[in-house]
Each structure stands twice: as C-alpha cells, then as structure tokens.
C-alpha cells in the first residue's frame, strides 16, 4: 500500500514506518520535526517537512495514497494543562485538517493513535473500550475529540477508520545495528527516565505519590512493547472497514507499580536507581490497565514481548548504543 505516516520522525511513528517498509509498503512521512528527530527518519521513506495542518499539499487526489497512519501530536499531559491552546490547535485542529485532506483526496483508510488518557479515572478494571470516557487532562480531551470526529467521518463519508488506544508504550525496535527507541525532550516517561538515572545522567528518579491504594502505594500502569504496538498497526490497516470506526485498547492486561518498574530497571542495568517520593500529580489515576480482548479477538493481535524485562532490556540496548555512546 502507499501510506502516509504523520509523526514518523517520533518514537512510535518511526518504528511503525520501519516495519511498514520492511513489509513492502511505500511510505511517506509527514513530520515537521517539532518534537521528532531527523535521525529517526527511515532513509527509504520520502520525508515531507510540513505540519499536519497542511497535509492537503501531500494528500492530493492524484497522489494515490491507500491510507494514513496518524501519530503526529503533542503528548505531554502536564504541559497540556498549562498550555491547553497548543494541544487543541495541534492535536485536534491539526487532525481535523488532516481528515479534511483525507476526504478531499479520497483516501480510503486512516489509523489514529489514541490513548488510555481518554478514560481518565477508570470505574472498571481492566478497562474495556466501552468504559466511560472522562479525560482528566487536556491531552486526553484533544485525543477523544479526534476519536469522535473519526466516528462521524466513518458514518458520514464512509472512511475506514481505526483508533488504537495505547497504554504505556516502552521498549525499542532492534535489528542488527539498527535501533529505534524513545527520545522525548523533555522526557516524561518512567522507563527512559529511570534508564537516564541508571546511566548516571540524572541523579534521581521522582515517583509521584506513594499513598495510592495499590500494593506498594505507587501508581499502576500497563506497559506495551513498541514492536507489539507496531504490529497492531499493520493488522489494523487490513482490518479497517469502510463506513466503520473500530476502536481497540492496546496493553498487556498486566499492571506494574512504579516501584516494580524501577526494580526491573535496576535488575536489567545492574545499576542503582535512587528514588525520591514527590507529591501526587493532579489527574494521575491510581491504576490504568487495559482489556485488549477486542484487539485479540478482531485483529488477531497477540503480544510477543509482554514482559517488562523485554521492554526495559530493549530500551536499555537502544539507550546505551544510540544515546550514551553518541554523546
Ligand atoms: N508514547 C506513549 O506511551 C503513547 C501512549 C499513548 C498514545 N500515544 C500517542 O502516540 C503518538 C506518537 O507518540 P510518540 O511517543 O511517538 O510521540 P513523539 O513526540 O515521539 O512523536 C510525535 C511526532 O509528531 C510530530 N508532530 C507533532 N505535531 C506535529 C504537527 N502538527 N505536524 C507534523 N508533525 C507533528 C513530531 O515532530 C514528532 O516527530 C501520539 O499521537 C501520542 O499521543 C503515545
């Protein structure tokens, strides 16, 4: 298929672009590099340096795209609370412009990166797709708005739409000398921050809150390996049906506390990871664990790297070879 990958210079988009190319697809990456990295761009992909708001310049009716995989977004929940206008303009207004371009060009399918953040504080665990959607931050709200727009677009204009609601993504894509991994700036995700501490690049890790109703008082999250997540995108592309908006949660169905994650980072790296407990962060749910039963049933998706050791081990291999050694 001829595919447009928005956000293909970012963490997840670059891994998916790589796997699409490896599976014989023709890939164009649309990414203005506002948070992405030129080094993450696959050399065989065509790169268009434009914001998604201008996607119509690439998605012309003659270009013949078979689908769009839409990763481009701002992703920091904390920042979204202090600069909400940035998130609405980028994530929601930008996505609406992309959907307009998809419709005008007659592109038949779109796969969207949605998020567990649409659920807010869940009333049921593990969380099914039918759970109440009540985001506790602007980031989650901007993503939920796009999910809703896609439902309308599928009904009104026959788009084959799929939203994949990721839980916490971790790990790296490793193949021979090639390694593609997580590199956010500033980094807000637990595993890469813990690796920076293990590598001696930060003096300590902050854990926000140790009085939650969980086994050790720290928050519980569900982690999914980026390669398993990428495989779900390839399955979603072929499972998309015109006129339907399918929505799937993607996680492993196992929760780990922040302290358990740090312990695995210590085991994998063999290094100390000093921890400091900080106050709870506003809007952080105690526990987020996915039910991915629907993805397993309808997409035939089965995670192949479900353990935290898989994810931390691969993330550490990427960090050592591509971040530490290149400084
Ligand atoms: N990382 C996670 O754990 C996680 C969890 C749930 C959902 N998601 C979603 O997955 C997607 C990818 O996340 P990521 O971790 O790879 O983020 P990332 O920041 O590494 O990548 C995002 C990419 O999008 C590009 N981009 C952003 N706004 C753009 C715009 N207006 N025009 C063109 N390019 C733009 C950036 O330059 C960057 O390359 C996001 O939509 C995010 O909301 C991520």
TrEMBL record:
<comment type="pathway">
    <text>Carbohydrate metabolism; galactose metabolism.</text>
</comment>
<dbReference type="InterPro" id="IPR001509">
    <property type="entry name" value="Epimerase_deHydtase"/>
</dbReference>
<dbReference type="Pfam" id="PF01370">
    <property type="entry name" value="Epimerase"/>
</dbReference>
<keyword id="KW-0520">NAD</keyword>
<keyword id="KW-0413">Isomerase</keyword>
<dbReference type="InterPro" id="IPR036291">
    <property type="entry name" value="NAD(P)-bd_dom_sf"/>
</dbReference>
<dbReference type="InterPro" id="IPR005886">
    <property type="entry name" value="UDP_G4E"/>
</dbReference>
<comment type="subunit">
    <text>Homodimer.</text>
</comment>
<feature type="domain" description="NAD-dependent epimerase/dehydratase">
    <location>
        <begin position="4"/>
        <end position="251"/>
    </location>
</feature>
<protein>
    <recommendedName>
        <fullName>UDP-glucose 4-epimerase</fullName>
        <ecNumber>5.1.3.2</ecNumber>
    </recommendedName>
</protein>
<keyword id="KW-0119">Carbohydrate metabolism</keyword>
<dbReference type="GO" id="GO:0033499">
    <property type="term" value="P:galactose catabolic process via UDP-galactose, Leloir pathway"/>
</dbReference>
<comment type="similarity">
    <text>Belongs to the NAD(P)-dependent epimerase/dehydratase family.</text>
</comment>
<dbReference type="GO" id="GO:0003978">
    <property type="term" value="F:UDP-glucose 4-epimerase activity"/>
</dbReference>
């Amino acid at each position: 298929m001829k595919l447009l990958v928005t956000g293909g210079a970012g963490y997840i988009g670059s891994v998916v672009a790589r796997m699409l190319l490896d599976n014989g697809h023709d890939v164009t990456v649309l990414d203005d590099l506002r948070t992405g990295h030129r080094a993450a761009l696959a050399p065989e992909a065509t790169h268009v340096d434009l914001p998604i708001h201008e996607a119509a310049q690439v998605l012309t009716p003659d270009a013949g795209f078979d689908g769009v995989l839409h990763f481009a977004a701002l992703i920091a929940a904390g920042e979204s609370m202090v600069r909400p206008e940035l998130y609405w303009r980028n994530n929601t207004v930008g996505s609406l412009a992309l959907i307009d371009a998809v419709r005008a060009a007659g592109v038949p399918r779109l796969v969207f990166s949605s998020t567990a953040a649409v659920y807010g504080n869940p009333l049921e665990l593990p969380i099914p797709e039918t759970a109440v959607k009540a985001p506790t931050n602007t980031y989650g709200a901007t993503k939920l708005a796009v999910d809703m727009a896609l439902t309308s677009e599928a009904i009104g204009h026959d788009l084959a739409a799929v939203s994949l609601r990721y839980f916490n993504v971790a790990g790296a894509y490793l193949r021979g000398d090639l390694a593609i991994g997580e590199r956010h700036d500033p980094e807000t995700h637990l595993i890469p921050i813990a690796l920076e501490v293990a590598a001696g690049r930060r003096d300590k890790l902050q854990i926000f809150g140790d009085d939650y109703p969980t086994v050790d008082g720290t928050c519980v999250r569900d982690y999914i390996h980026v390669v398993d997540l990428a495989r779900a995108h390839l399955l979603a592309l072929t499972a998309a049906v015109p006129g339907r908006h399918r929505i799937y949660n993607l996680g492993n169905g196992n929760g780990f506390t922040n302290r358990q994650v740090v312990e695995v980072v210590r085991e994998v790296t063999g290094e100390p990871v000093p921890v400091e407990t900080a106050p709870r962060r506003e809007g952080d749910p105690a526990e987020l664990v996915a039910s991915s039963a629907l993805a397993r049933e309808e997409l035939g998706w089965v995670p192949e790297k479900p353990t935290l050791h898989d994810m931390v081990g691969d993330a550490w291999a990427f960090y050592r070879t591509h971040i530490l050694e290149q400084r």
